[in-house]
Amino acid sequence: MVELRENEAAVIKALQSHGGNCSFEELLASTSQSNAAVTRALTTLQEKQFVKVSETDQVALRLTEEGLEYAKSGLPERRLLQAVLELGGEATIDQAAKRANIPEQIASVALGWIKISKWCEVTTQLQKVVLKAAGIPDRTNVEKALELISSKHDLPLEQLPADLQESVETLKRRQLLDTRKQRKRYTELTAQGWKALEQGITVPEEISDLTPELITSKRWRNVSFRKYNIAAPVTPIWPGKKQPYRQFLDNLKRKLVALGFKEMTGPIVELMFFNCDALFMPQDHPAREIHDIYFVKTDELGDLAEYSRFIDNVAATHENGWKTGSSGWGYKYSRNEALKLILRSQGTALSARTLASKNLEIPGKYFSVVRCFRPDQVDRTHLTEFNQVEGIVVGADLSLRDLLGVLERFAIDIAGADKVRFKPDYFPFTEPSVELQAYKEGYGWLEFGGSGIFRPELTLPLGIKVPVLAWGIGVDRLFMMRARLDDIRMLFAQDLDWMRKQKVT
Amino acid sequence: MDDLEGLVGRKLPRDEDQLNELLYQIKCEISHPALENQGVLQTTTLQDDSELHIENVDTNRPDTWSTEGIARALRGLMGIEVGLRKYSLSKKPAVEISVDKELRDVRSFIACVVARHPKINDETIRGLIHLQEKLDQSYGRKRRRSSIGFYDFDLITPPLRYGVADPDEIRFIPLEGTESLSLREILEKHPKGVEYGHIVSQHPKLPILLDSQGKVLSFPPIINSNDLGRVTSDTKNILVEITGTSEDTVMNTLTILTTSLADRGAEICPSRVHYKYGKARTVITPSLTERKFTISTRDIRKIIGLDLRPKEMISLLRRARYNGTASGVKSLVVTVPCYRLDILHPVDIIEDIAIAYGLNKMKPRWPPDLTIGGLSPVEEYSDNVRELMVGLGFQEALTFVMTNQEKLFTKMNQEPTQIVEITNPKVTTMTCLRHWLLPSLMDFLSNNTHIEYPQKLYEIGDCAIWDFTQPNRVVDVHKLGCVSAHSHANFTEIKSILEPLMINLGFEFTLKPTSHPSFLTGRVGSILIGDRDVGIIGEIHPQVLENWKLEDPVAAMELDLSQLFMIHKESAGEAPKQPTSERAN
Lengths: 505, 585
Known about the structure:
The structure holds two protein chains of two kinds.
Chain A: E1 2-3, H1 6-17, E2 21-23, H2 24-29, H3 35-47, E3 51-63, H4 65-73, H5 76-86, E4 90-92, H6 93-100, H7 104-117, E5 120-125, E6 128-133, H8 141-151, E7 155-156, H9 162-173, E8 177-189, H10 191-199, E9 201-202, E10 206-207, H11 212-216, E11 224-225, H12 244-258, E12 262-263, E13 269-271, H13 272-275, H14 308-320, H15 335-338, E14 341-343, H16 348-356, E15 364-373, E16 385-394, H17 400-414, E17 419-424, E18 430-440, E19 444-454, H18 456-459, E20 468-473, H19 475-482, H20 496-501
Parallel strand pairs in A: 1-9, 10-11, 12-15
Antiparallel strand pairs in A: 2-8, 3-7, 3-8, 4-6, 5-6, 13-14, 15-16, 16-20, 17-18, 18-19, 19-20
Helix pairs in contact in A: 1-3, 4-8, 5-6, 5-7, 8-9
Chain B: H1 2-8, H2 16-24, E1 28-30, E2 54-56, H3 67-77, E3 95-99, E4 109-116, H4 122-139, E5 146-152, E6 160-165, E7 171-172, E8 181-182, H5 183-189, H6 191-196, E9 206-210, E10 216-219, E11 223-224, E12 237-244, H7 247-263, E13 267-275, E14 281-285, E15 291-296, H8 297-304, H9 310-319, E16 323-327, E17 331-336, H10 346-357, H11 377-391, E18 395-396, E19 402-403, H12 405-410, E20 432-433, H13 438-446, E21 455-466, E22 474-485, H14 491-505, E23 510-513, E24 519-529, E25 532-540, H15 542-547, E26 554-560, H16 561-571
Parallel strand pairs in B: 3-6, 3-13, 18-21
Antiparallel strand pairs in B: 1-2, 4-12, 4-13, 5-12, 6-9, 7-8, 9-10, 10-11, 13-14, 15-17, 16-17, 19-20, 21-22, 22-26, 23-24, 24-25, 25-26
């Protein structure tokens, strides 16, 4: 006796009933097993050399929509002929088409076929095509083929009688038929397979699924469990997961919080005042034009009533330096300009808001990770909507050396750089200004961000009498380095596959 | 490079890093226009040392926009010549200029200088033209605030008249041109007229600069005359003229050009400008006077964080080409050269002391103040929701707040409502801010139809909604969007996500049947907490699926997290807070 599993036994017996030789589909139809079970059984039966599976390519025939319609209602040329006969054996093409309910374009095609098959006598009288029919012709091979093909889905070409095979080309040309290549599997019992059947097949009780019933009834003690092919491929279930870039920003935030920074928040639609004026950017500064800032489409202006005392100070500082010790920019400040509604173009707007807030703590450290907007052309290195990480440190005894200390800490502890160096820089709202460069093995020296001490022209008008250190980090670039990306657009990439498979950090 | 070394008076380092170390101190650096790389700083030896490209970081230091200015600063940094460089004017004015009344509202100011016998060749002329263009574009705000003209002074018969003319009254041959054109023709046809004409073309009469013979020097700010306004290496005496709408800008621009020409060995002969409008006055240009600042040594020490002695401060100042003298024990009087237009405040001078000392020589210090960190409460709340959504098996998406009306409305099967639009969009796909999140997620799904299903996505993101009672007229609303797309996605599934989410957030909710064009009728509900509407849930309408070219059903929900946060705080016994007044506390 030969021991086989249930599905294997079913398959080998089904194959026997087909005379030891049949297609996969026939085999599937004659067992009560699922497609997957039959496939699995065939794999193991092949391993046991009871069955041989071979594959051949064959051409399957399938009618197009038009083809299916004609299979039902007849070819248009036959319907046209029918109509001519019904109209007394002679009619113009228009009359016949109308009676047969055939559209004009199709009628002209049908006329062509009528001429070729000589079903009617075709003449032109008074610029009209006239058809004369004598009787009903026999069914053509094309019509026979059409009927046969419509009777079976994906009929293999070989199953079409030899005399009809020629018609396939005609049907294809008339776009009534599609042919497609199909891979066919055939199964065949080997000599060893026949021998096994002669010896007899037994199926010991094997359990595939462990069920609660098996456990509670304690029947599991008396059964054997089917062994799985643990190497078989499965469909993965993808995890719920944070977006890789946001995850990175989360980690960054956590580290900043650990260093004593509090998070600032602020509005996306911002007033020009906080985005620029309060930062001592003169109102005719090139970075305030439409090339650098998105303007909200509205006639409405914002409201700064809550901050009116600051506006007076800021206006005077821009015009003549106010009490800050500065000469100012020397122009006439416009309050209307300050009230314009724009999209925040830099995270520094939040720092200005924080300094103007009643709740500011001195000493204090603050940070923000926010979306900023600039009308840049989007390419490998630019986005029009991007994230900025910014921070300020407020305290009575802060100096340039503390700024360098914050930058060094950031680069080494947070960004994982090996060493840092500093370079003089320029920003309209800081003096001194410092660029942070960080070195990382394998990457060389990289520009990490800009920083400085806020100018007195910024802090004093907002009522802050102590130094404020400010820094901003090119966080996009930092992540690109971590995730080994060379295109900034990947940060917002709508690529689910990438997100599912991106390594978590 | 030869020219620069000639002016500096010493060989410069050939190692790029070493040369950059010097240039960084005046906020310049070597650039490789042909070798733009992605932020990775090149370290190479200069390949071709005949030509050097230097880029300015500092957009407010026009004195470093010329070879002369860079050389002047390098001499100080290299210790060749420290302290203030004095510039002086010849006693006798070389040219008188009268300014007509009519110019007051057209282009009010002019300043001139005559540079006699500068040592120039073709290369230095190219340098001058480069400086002129940069000043016109950047400092002169594309010639609006100021524009520059150079002339061969020996072809001109002073005095000059800066006046106005009818567009058809005067004709001259523009620089590099061959045929004589009227002012109107220049505005209409000449490339410079087309480019800069808008600055003056709205005036019935146009500015014109003439000599005493009535010969045209230029049509400011458009173009010089070809006869007088052409300067070559053979030109012995150069007249420089600046016109503009801001007297400070005009005078400052002239200062920059004058100091460059003086560094080339020219004798500087001033001009007298007679303004005939307002209160008649006469101004001598250029003005090369230095400014003096008194700075307390305590401020210097405090800002830099180094215990420098006044003597050290003065020596560092001199390297940066200032003069400094101790005034009493506690302060310094610093003399600032005329060309340092960027100095507004003592901090600008203090920065130069720090730079001359060397940023990389300072010992960084972590600020000693102890502060307590923390996330903003609303962000912290969102993070909790994000954790739950991840736990429920949803992939987080990150999409743009900017989008367009087609995505927000048309594709969602909706009529447009009032949203926040942008005046100056850059691309048609980003013309406004979203007011709800589901379109962003639908867009995401439609970009991933080739990826395995089921696809379950969520995002917490900002949406912008008009609220004219708010100071900014628009409020940011935090929203949670959530979609599940696969062959069996349906209402039951998405509701079975909403329920545990709400339980975990501590809310009891009810669903009220509603209608919404983006959802299938009869399979959509408002999410209510008490009687407050906090979101929507349902099966996406097949028409919407078709619009996004999706072939699988999508069940979706959207929750207003800003509201949930408020309700959460209320129930926790705290006063409700408007999301826009959310500030660090």
